[in-house]
Design brief:
With about 100 residues, the protein is an alpha+beta fold.
Length: about 100
């Protein structure tokens, strides 16, 4: 294992963002509402770095980027599922009728 991932992470909070595209995520940081309302509030609880000796330090946060795929959307499967899986699901429901 990479030593960088062997210890705990010292953060007080975590946030997940689900966005349509990375470009829209970045554009949100230029939105007038973000700039006038959200960003000033962030200054109270997000360490965006300090000015130290005329040099800004690194933001003390961690970001990851990935994708998410809906497995169920509007109550229906959003991915291909083999018929045998649905058959097994139906059998399970029949043996435990009060559970969904």
């Amino acid at each position: 294992m990479d030593p960088a991932f062997s210890g705990s992470i010292d953060y007080n909070a975590a946030v997940d963002f689900y966005v349509e595209s990375y470009e829209r995520f970045i554009a949100a940081y230029h939105d007038p509402y973000y700039l006038s309302v959200i960003e000033p509030d962030e200054q109270r609880f997000v360490d965006k770095g300090q000015i130290d000796g005329g040099k800004r330090t690194v933001v003390r946060a961690m970001s990851t980027l990935g994708t998410a795929k809906s497995m169920i959307k509007d109550g229906k499967a959003a991915v291909q599922v083999k018929s045998e899986i649905w058959e097994n699901w139906q059998k399970l429901k029949e043996t435990k009728p009060n559970q969904q």
